[in-house]
User: What shape does this take?
Amino acid sequence: MDTKQEAQVPPIEKQKIKEPERPEINISSKKEPKSYKIVCKLVMKKFGYCVLKSLGNASESVVQIAESLSRSGCAKITKIESGITELEDLNNETGTRQGITFTVRLDKGPKFEEMTLNLD
Assistant: This one.
C-alpha cells in the first residue's frame, strides 16, 4: 500500500463578487486606486451612479479613480464636493482634530455599456 496520499485540490471556482448594497464607496489610501475601478463599474451598473468618498490622504485616490473612469468614457463626473469634518484624536488635548473629506459623484458615461459587457 502506498502511504503517501495526494492532496485533493478543489478546482478553481470563479470568485463571487458581493452585490453592492448602496451607491457609496469609501475609498482608502491603503488600497491601490485601480482596485476600486471594477467596484465602481458594478455600483454604476446597479444604481446608475456611484459616489466615491474619502477622508484625508485618500482624496488623491478618489481623483485618480474618477479621472481614469472619466477619460475612458466609462463615467462622467457630475459633482465634486470637499469639506472638513471633526475626527476623534486621543493624542490631541481637545480629543478631536479636523479632517478633509472629498466626494465625487460619477454617472454612467457614453461608453459605459460597451466597457461593462462582461461584468454579469
The CA atoms of residues 74 and 114 lie 8 Å apart. The chain has a mean pLDDT of 86. Strands lie at 24-26, 49-55, 75-88, 96-108. The chain has one domain: 24-112.
